[in-house]
Amino acid sequence: MWGILAWLAGSKIGRLIATTGIVIASVFVIALRLMAIGAAGERAKQTEQSLKNIRERIKTDEKVRDMPIDDVRDKLRSDWMRND
Asked: Which residues in the chain show pLDDT less than 70?
């Protein structure tokens, strides 16, 4: 182990290999971090869309709840709930 470290520190080729390895590892870590940030952003967008859908459903449920039962039945017969 110490021999490898001594070779990396003591020769031009060893320093070049060590520097290249550090640069590659740094780029890899940065890429992983950027991917994690992107994934978190996508999860946030999906959560926001889910909340929007839930709010819309609550509004629709309130409208239906306030309607007389005969009107609800008529709307359902006329395919009011379908979005084809």
From this structure: 79-84
d(CA 70, CA 14): 85
Helices (H), the chain: 2-10, 12-66, 69-77
How far is it, in rounded angstroms, from Cα 18 to Cα 82?
64
Contact 8, 15 (CB under 8 A): yes
Instruction: Output the pTM of the full model.
Output: 0.56
Cα–chain center distance at 79 = 35
11, 20 contact by CB (below 8 A): no
